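Form P-L/3: holo structure prediction, ligand pyridoxal-5'-phosphate.
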Amino acid sequence: MSTKPVPVNEPLLDGNERKYLLECIDTGWISSEGPFVRRFEDEFARCVGRRFGVAVSSGSAALDAAVVALGIGPDDEVIMPAFTIISCAAAIVRAGAVPVLVDSDPLTWNIDVAKIEQRLTNKTKAIMVVHIYGLPTDMDPILDLACRYSLLVIEDAAQMHGQTYRSRQCGSFGAVSTFSFYPNKHVTAGEGGMIVTDDSQVAERCRSLRNLCFKPEQRFVHDELGWNFRMTSIQAALGVAQLERLDEVVEKKRSMGRGYRNAFAGMTSIELTPDKTDYADNIYWVFGMVLSDEVAFDAREAMRRLGELGVGTRPFFWPMHEQPALRKRGLFGHERYPVAERLARRGFYIPSGVALTPEQLTEVASRVRKVLQ
Ligand SMILES: Cc1ncc(COP(=O)(O)O)c(C=O)c1O
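OUTPUT (holo model):
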Protein backbone atom coordinates (compact mmCIF):
# COMPACT_ATOMS: atom_id res chain seq x y z
CA MET A 1 0.00 0.00 0.00
CA SER A 2 1.28 3.50 -0.86
CA THR A 3 1.71 5.84 2.12
CA LYS A 4 1.39 9.09 0.20
CA PRO A 5 -0.80 11.50 2.20
CA VAL A 6 -4.20 12.30 0.73
CA PRO A 7 -5.45 15.82 1.53
CA VAL A 8 -9.05 16.26 2.61
CA ASN A 9 -9.70 18.56 -0.35
CA GLU A 10 -8.03 19.68 -3.56
CA PRO A 11 -9.77 21.90 -6.12
CA LEU A 12 -9.69 21.21 -9.85
CA LEU A 13 -8.69 24.29 -11.87
CA ASP A 14 -7.91 22.91 -15.31
CA GLY A 15 -10.80 24.38 -17.31
CA ASN A 16 -10.99 28.02 -18.44
CA GLU A 17 -9.74 29.36 -15.09
CA ARG A 18 -6.31 30.38 -16.40
CA LYS A 19 -7.75 31.95 -19.56
CA TYR A 20 -10.27 34.11 -17.68
CA LEU A 21 -7.76 35.14 -15.02
CA LEU A 22 -5.36 36.27 -17.75
CA GLU A 23 -8.21 38.27 -19.25
CA CYS A 24 -8.53 40.14 -15.94
CA ILE A 25 -4.82 40.90 -15.89
CA ASP A 26 -4.58 41.82 -19.59
CA THR A 27 -7.53 44.20 -19.40
CA GLY A 28 -6.70 45.59 -15.95
CA TRP A 29 -10.22 44.77 -14.71
CA ILE A 30 -9.42 43.22 -11.34
CA SER A 31 -11.72 45.04 -8.89
CA SER A 32 -15.39 44.47 -8.12
CA GLU A 33 -16.20 46.83 -11.02
CA GLY A 34 -14.82 44.32 -13.53
CA PRO A 35 -17.12 42.54 -16.01
CA PHE A 36 -16.79 39.03 -14.61
CA VAL A 37 -18.74 39.95 -11.48
CA ARG A 38 -22.01 40.69 -13.29
CA ARG A 39 -21.44 37.77 -15.64
CA PHE A 40 -20.95 35.38 -12.71
CA GLU A 41 -24.03 36.77 -10.96
CA ASP A 42 -26.21 36.36 -14.04
CA GLU A 43 -24.93 32.92 -14.98
CA PHE A 44 -25.12 31.60 -11.43
CA ALA A 45 -28.63 32.97 -10.84
CA ARG A 46 -29.78 31.39 -14.12
CA CYS A 47 -28.20 28.09 -13.13
CA VAL A 48 -30.24 27.87 -9.90
CA GLY A 49 -33.37 29.32 -11.47
CA ARG A 50 -33.44 32.67 -9.69
CA ARG A 51 -33.95 36.15 -11.17
CA PHE A 52 -31.11 37.91 -9.34
CA GLY A 53 -27.65 37.06 -8.07
CA VAL A 54 -25.55 39.30 -5.83
CA ALA A 55 -21.92 38.23 -5.52
CA VAL A 56 -20.21 38.85 -2.18
CA SER A 57 -16.91 38.04 -0.50
CA SER A 58 -17.95 34.80 1.25
CA GLY A 59 -20.84 32.51 2.11
CA SER A 60 -20.81 33.98 5.62
CA ALA A 61 -21.10 37.52 4.21
CA ALA A 62 -23.99 36.33 2.04
CA LEU A 63 -25.86 35.21 5.18
CA ASP A 64 -25.15 38.47 6.99
CA ALA A 65 -26.44 40.56 4.11
CA ALA A 66 -29.43 38.28 3.43
CA VAL A 67 -30.69 38.40 7.02
CA VAL A 68 -30.50 42.20 7.16
CA ALA A 69 -31.94 42.61 3.65
CA LEU A 70 -35.03 40.68 4.74
CA GLY A 71 -35.60 43.16 7.55
CA ILE A 72 -34.87 40.66 10.33
CA GLY A 73 -33.82 42.55 13.46
CA PRO A 74 -34.24 43.05 17.20
CA ASP A 75 -37.05 41.07 18.80
CA ASP A 76 -37.30 38.63 15.89
CA GLU A 77 -36.63 34.93 16.32
CA VAL A 78 -35.18 32.79 13.56
CA ILE A 79 -35.44 29.00 13.60
CA MET A 80 -32.24 27.23 12.54
CA PRO A 81 -30.52 23.85 12.97
CA ALA A 82 -28.32 23.34 16.04
CA PHE A 83 -25.90 21.44 13.81
CA THR A 84 -24.40 23.86 11.28
CA ILE A 85 -21.59 26.38 10.83
CA ILE A 86 -21.37 29.41 13.15
CA SER A 87 -21.98 31.78 10.17
CA CYS A 88 -25.72 31.00 10.33
CA ALA A 89 -26.16 31.93 13.99
CA ALA A 90 -23.68 34.81 13.70
CA ALA A 91 -25.72 36.46 10.95
CA ILE A 92 -28.89 36.26 13.06
CA VAL A 93 -27.17 37.51 16.22
CA ARG A 94 -25.38 40.37 14.41
CA ALA A 95 -28.76 41.52 13.05
CA GLY A 96 -29.95 41.76 16.67
CA ALA A 97 -32.32 38.78 16.34
CA VAL A 98 -32.41 35.54 18.33
CA PRO A 99 -31.47 32.13 16.89
CA VAL A 100 -33.85 29.37 18.01
CA LEU A 101 -32.39 25.91 17.60
CA VAL A 102 -33.82 22.61 16.40
CA ASP A 103 -32.05 19.25 16.68
CA SER A 104 -30.93 17.20 13.66
CA ASP A 105 -32.56 14.27 11.93
CA PRO A 106 -30.31 11.29 12.76
CA LEU A 107 -30.70 9.85 9.25
CA THR A 108 -29.97 12.87 7.05
CA TRP A 109 -28.13 15.11 9.59
CA ASN A 110 -30.28 18.06 8.45
CA ILE A 111 -32.71 19.95 10.69
CA ASP A 112 -35.39 17.61 12.08
CA VAL A 113 -38.35 19.03 10.21
CA ALA A 114 -40.89 17.39 12.54
CA LYS A 115 -39.51 19.40 15.49
CA ILE A 116 -39.77 22.87 13.96
CA GLU A 117 -43.41 23.68 14.67
CA GLN A 118 -43.02 23.24 18.45
CA ARG A 119 -40.30 25.93 18.44
CA LEU A 120 -42.45 28.64 16.79
CA THR A 121 -43.57 31.61 18.88
CA ASN A 122 -45.28 34.87 18.01
CA LYS A 123 -41.79 36.35 17.54
CA THR A 124 -40.69 33.84 14.90
CA LYS A 125 -39.96 35.71 11.70
CA ALA A 126 -38.03 33.21 9.60
CA ILE A 127 -36.73 29.68 9.20
CA MET A 128 -33.12 29.35 8.11
CA VAL A 129 -32.72 26.03 6.33
CA VAL A 130 -29.21 24.62 5.90
CA HIS A 131 -28.55 21.66 3.62
CA ILE A 132 -25.76 19.69 5.25
CA TYR A 133 -23.02 17.57 3.63
CA GLY A 134 -24.97 15.95 0.78
CA LEU A 135 -28.71 15.57 1.15
CA PRO A 136 -31.00 18.59 1.01
CA THR A 137 -33.43 19.31 3.83
CA ASP A 138 -36.98 18.08 3.19
CA MET A 139 -38.32 21.43 1.94
CA ASP A 140 -42.03 20.79 1.34
CA PRO A 141 -43.05 20.56 5.03
CA ILE A 142 -40.97 23.68 5.76
CA LEU A 143 -42.51 25.66 2.92
CA ASP A 144 -45.92 24.54 4.14
CA LEU A 145 -45.17 25.72 7.72
CA ALA A 146 -43.79 29.00 6.39
CA CYS A 147 -46.95 29.53 4.40
CA ARG A 148 -49.28 28.67 7.32
CA TYR A 149 -47.46 30.93 9.82
CA SER A 150 -46.36 33.67 7.34
CA LEU A 151 -42.66 33.08 7.89
CA LEU A 152 -39.74 33.93 5.65
CA VAL A 153 -37.47 31.10 4.47
CA ILE A 154 -33.73 31.64 4.10
CA GLU A 155 -32.03 28.76 2.33
CA ASP A 156 -28.33 28.29 3.10
CA ALA A 157 -27.25 26.26 0.07
CA ALA A 158 -23.53 26.93 0.66
CA GLN A 159 -22.70 23.26 0.08
CA MET A 160 -25.31 22.37 -2.52
CA HIS A 161 -24.24 23.69 -5.95
CA GLY A 162 -25.86 21.41 -8.48
CA GLN A 163 -28.11 19.57 -5.99
CA THR A 164 -31.87 19.30 -6.51
CA TYR A 165 -34.85 18.75 -4.23
CA ARG A 166 -37.74 17.00 -6.02
CA SER A 167 -36.17 18.10 -9.33
CA ARG A 168 -35.98 21.77 -8.24
CA GLN A 169 -32.58 23.36 -7.85
CA CYS A 170 -31.30 23.93 -4.32
CA GLY A 171 -30.92 27.68 -4.10
CA SER A 172 -34.37 28.30 -5.58
CA PHE A 173 -36.39 27.99 -2.35
CA GLY A 174 -37.71 30.71 -0.07
CA ALA A 175 -37.15 34.45 -0.02
CA VAL A 176 -33.37 34.23 -0.47
CA SER A 177 -30.76 31.53 -0.84
CA THR A 178 -27.05 31.82 -0.21
CA PHE A 179 -23.97 30.00 -1.51
CA SER A 180 -20.26 29.81 -0.69
CA PHE A 181 -17.40 29.51 -3.19
CA TYR A 182 -14.66 28.41 -0.79
CA PRO A 183 -12.24 25.95 -2.51
CA ASN A 184 -13.95 22.88 -1.08
CA LYS A 185 -17.19 23.78 -2.86
CA HIS A 186 -18.38 22.37 -6.22
CA VAL A 187 -17.87 25.85 -7.65
CA THR A 188 -15.01 27.84 -6.16
CA ALA A 189 -13.83 31.41 -6.57
CA GLY A 190 -10.99 31.05 -4.05
CA GLU A 191 -13.23 32.85 -1.59
CA GLY A 192 -16.67 34.20 -2.32
CA GLY A 193 -20.39 33.92 -1.86
CA MET A 194 -23.67 34.68 -3.62
CA ILE A 195 -27.15 35.70 -2.58
CA VAL A 196 -29.84 34.65 -5.04
CA THR A 197 -33.43 35.83 -4.94
CA ASP A 198 -36.46 36.52 -7.13
CA ASP A 199 -37.25 39.76 -5.31
CA SER A 200 -35.76 42.84 -6.98
CA GLN A 201 -35.96 44.93 -3.80
CA VAL A 202 -34.12 42.33 -1.73
CA ALA A 203 -31.47 42.07 -4.45
CA GLU A 204 -31.04 45.86 -4.51
CA ARG A 205 -30.79 45.96 -0.73
CA CYS A 206 -28.10 43.26 -0.79
CA ARG A 207 -26.17 45.22 -3.45
CA SER A 208 -26.29 48.30 -1.23
CA LEU A 209 -25.34 46.39 1.94
CA ARG A 210 -22.34 44.76 0.28
CA ASN A 211 -21.06 48.17 -0.82
CA LEU A 212 -21.14 50.14 2.44
CA CYS A 213 -24.66 51.45 1.72
CA PHE A 214 -23.33 54.36 -0.35
CA LYS A 215 -26.20 56.71 -1.09
CA PRO A 216 -26.63 56.56 -4.90
CA GLU A 217 -27.30 60.29 -5.20
CA GLN A 218 -24.57 61.40 -2.79
CA ARG A 219 -21.51 59.20 -2.57
CA PHE A 220 -19.79 59.04 0.84
CA VAL A 221 -23.04 59.82 2.60
CA HIS A 222 -24.70 56.86 4.28
CA ASP A 223 -28.18 56.49 5.76
CA GLU A 224 -27.25 53.05 7.05
CA LEU A 225 -24.20 50.98 7.87
CA GLY A 226 -23.30 48.33 5.35
CA TRP A 227 -20.16 46.29 4.78
CA ASN A 228 -17.47 45.98 2.17
CA PHE A 229 -18.53 42.49 1.05
CA ARG A 230 -17.58 43.06 -2.61
CA MET A 231 -16.30 40.22 -4.78
CA THR A 232 -13.44 41.00 -7.16
CA SER A 233 -13.54 40.33 -10.88
CA ILE A 234 -10.60 37.97 -10.35
CA GLN A 235 -12.68 35.81 -8.03
CA ALA A 236 -15.67 36.00 -10.36
CA ALA A 237 -13.49 34.98 -13.33
CA LEU A 238 -12.63 31.79 -11.46
CA GLY A 239 -16.29 31.32 -10.58
CA VAL A 240 -17.43 31.63 -14.22
CA ALA A 241 -14.90 29.02 -15.33
CA GLN A 242 -15.89 26.69 -12.50
CA LEU A 243 -19.58 27.01 -13.24
CA GLU A 244 -18.98 25.74 -16.78
CA ARG A 245 -18.02 22.36 -15.29
CA LEU A 246 -20.66 22.01 -12.60
CA ASP A 247 -22.48 19.05 -14.22
CA GLU A 248 -19.23 17.17 -14.60
CA VAL A 249 -18.28 17.89 -10.98
CA VAL A 250 -21.64 16.73 -9.67
CA GLU A 251 -21.35 13.50 -11.63
CA LYS A 252 -17.85 13.01 -10.25
CA LYS A 253 -18.91 13.62 -6.64
CA ARG A 254 -21.80 11.18 -6.93
CA SER A 255 -19.56 8.52 -8.40
CA MET A 256 -17.00 9.16 -5.64
CA GLY A 257 -19.76 8.78 -3.04
CA ARG A 258 -20.85 5.48 -4.57
CA GLY A 259 -17.22 4.33 -4.69
CA TYR A 260 -16.73 4.93 -0.97
CA ARG A 261 -20.10 3.32 -0.15
CA ASN A 262 -19.13 0.16 -2.02
CA ALA A 263 -15.74 0.10 -0.33
CA PHE A 264 -17.36 0.41 3.11
CA ALA A 265 -20.21 -2.06 2.45
CA GLY A 266 -20.89 -4.27 5.46
CA MET A 267 -18.93 -2.11 7.93
CA THR A 268 -20.98 -1.76 11.10
CA SER A 269 -18.56 0.65 12.76
CA ILE A 270 -19.73 3.64 10.71
CA GLU A 271 -23.07 5.26 9.90
CA LEU A 272 -23.62 7.09 6.60
CA THR A 273 -26.49 9.18 5.29
CA PRO A 274 -28.63 7.41 2.65
CA ASP A 275 -27.52 7.42 -0.97
CA LYS A 276 -31.08 8.41 -1.92
CA THR A 277 -34.26 9.62 -0.28
CA ASP A 278 -37.66 10.02 -1.94
CA TYR A 279 -36.78 13.67 -2.68
CA ALA A 280 -33.08 13.69 -3.62
CA ASP A 281 -29.96 11.77 -4.53
CA ASN A 282 -27.03 12.39 -2.21
CA ILE A 283 -24.54 14.77 -3.83
CA TYR A 284 -21.70 13.90 -1.37
CA TRP A 285 -20.41 17.45 -0.99
CA VAL A 286 -18.18 15.75 1.56
CA PHE A 287 -18.08 12.08 2.44
CA GLY A 288 -19.04 12.16 6.11
CA MET A 289 -19.28 9.29 8.55
CA VAL A 290 -20.40 8.87 12.15
CA LEU A 291 -18.78 6.26 14.40
CA SER A 292 -21.37 3.77 15.57
CA ASP A 293 -21.72 2.90 19.25
CA GLU A 294 -19.63 -0.22 18.80
CA VAL A 295 -16.49 1.95 18.33
CA ALA A 296 -14.83 2.63 21.67
CA PHE A 297 -13.12 5.88 20.64
CA ASP A 298 -14.48 9.19 19.36
CA ALA A 299 -14.06 11.12 16.09
CA ARG A 300 -11.04 13.02 17.37
CA GLU A 301 -9.16 9.76 18.02
CA ALA A 302 -10.30 8.28 14.67
CA MET A 303 -8.98 11.37 12.89
CA ARG A 304 -5.70 11.14 14.77
CA ARG A 305 -5.25 7.50 13.75
CA LEU A 306 -6.19 8.26 10.14
CA GLY A 307 -3.79 11.21 10.15
CA GLU A 308 -0.98 8.82 11.09
CA LEU A 309 -1.82 6.85 7.95
CA GLY A 310 -1.79 10.00 5.81
CA VAL A 311 -5.54 10.43 5.47
CA GLY A 312 -6.71 14.04 5.67
CA THR A 313 -9.92 14.51 7.67
CA ARG A 314 -12.08 17.30 9.08
CA PRO A 315 -14.31 17.17 12.13
CA PHE A 316 -18.05 17.74 11.79
CA PHE A 317 -19.62 21.02 12.88
CA TRP A 318 -19.82 21.75 16.60
CA PRO A 319 -23.40 22.54 17.66
CA MET A 320 -24.52 26.10 18.23
CA HIS A 321 -25.69 25.59 21.85
CA GLU A 322 -22.14 24.50 22.74
CA GLN A 323 -20.42 27.53 21.18
CA PRO A 324 -18.71 29.74 23.78
CA ALA A 325 -19.16 32.83 21.57
CA LEU A 326 -22.94 32.37 21.63
CA ARG A 327 -23.32 31.11 25.20
CA LYS A 328 -21.42 34.20 26.40
CA ARG A 329 -24.31 36.22 25.03
CA GLY A 330 -26.73 34.39 27.27
CA LEU A 331 -28.11 32.19 24.51
CA PHE A 332 -29.45 28.61 24.80
CA GLY A 333 -29.36 28.15 28.64
CA HIS A 334 -29.58 24.43 29.48
CA GLU A 335 -30.88 23.40 26.05
CA ARG A 336 -29.70 20.01 24.80
CA TYR A 337 -29.74 18.67 21.24
CA PRO A 338 -28.63 15.04 21.56
CA VAL A 339 -28.46 14.20 17.85
CA ALA A 340 -26.35 17.26 17.05
CA GLU A 341 -24.12 16.54 20.05
CA ARG A 342 -23.55 12.97 18.88
CA LEU A 343 -22.81 14.07 15.30
CA ALA A 344 -20.23 16.55 16.59
CA ARG A 345 -18.46 14.02 18.80
CA ARG A 346 -18.58 10.99 16.52
CA GLY A 347 -18.64 12.50 13.03
CA PHE A 348 -15.92 13.50 10.59
CA TYR A 349 -15.27 13.45 6.88
CA ILE A 350 -12.58 11.94 4.71
CA PRO A 351 -10.92 13.14 1.46
CA SER A 352 -13.69 13.97 -0.98
CA GLY A 353 -12.49 16.93 -3.05
CA VAL A 354 -13.19 17.24 -6.75
CA ALA A 355 -9.58 16.36 -7.65
CA LEU A 356 -9.60 13.03 -5.74
CA THR A 357 -8.53 10.24 -8.12
CA PRO A 358 -10.01 6.71 -8.11
CA GLU A 359 -6.61 5.41 -6.96
CA GLN A 360 -6.58 7.83 -4.01
CA LEU A 361 -10.13 6.82 -3.15
CA THR A 362 -9.16 3.14 -3.03
CA GLU A 363 -6.15 3.98 -0.84
CA VAL A 364 -8.20 6.10 1.55
CA ALA A 365 -10.93 3.46 1.81
CA SER A 366 -8.45 0.73 2.71
CA ARG A 367 -6.79 2.94 5.35
CA VAL A 368 -10.20 3.80 6.82
CA ARG A 369 -11.06 0.10 6.97
CA LYS A 370 -7.77 -0.57 8.71
CA VAL A 371 -8.54 1.97 11.45
CA LEU A 372 -12.26 1.35 11.84
CA GLN A 373 -12.97 -2.27 11.10
C1 LIG B 1 -23.60 25.53 5.39
C2 LIG B 1 -22.58 26.61 5.29
N1 LIG B 1 -22.98 27.90 5.39
C3 LIG B 1 -22.11 28.92 5.29
C4 LIG B 1 -20.77 28.69 5.08
C5 LIG B 1 -19.82 29.85 5.05
O1 LIG B 1 -19.20 30.00 3.82
P1 LIG B 1 -17.78 30.78 3.73
O2 LIG B 1 -16.74 29.86 4.23
O3 LIG B 1 -17.65 31.07 2.27
O4 LIG B 1 -17.91 32.01 4.54
C6 LIG B 1 -20.31 27.37 4.95
C7 LIG B 1 -18.89 27.09 4.69
O5 LIG B 1 -18.50 25.99 4.41
C8 LIG B 1 -21.22 26.31 5.07
O6 LIG B 1 -20.83 25.04 4.98
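COMMENT: Residues 246-263 form the longest helix (18 residues).
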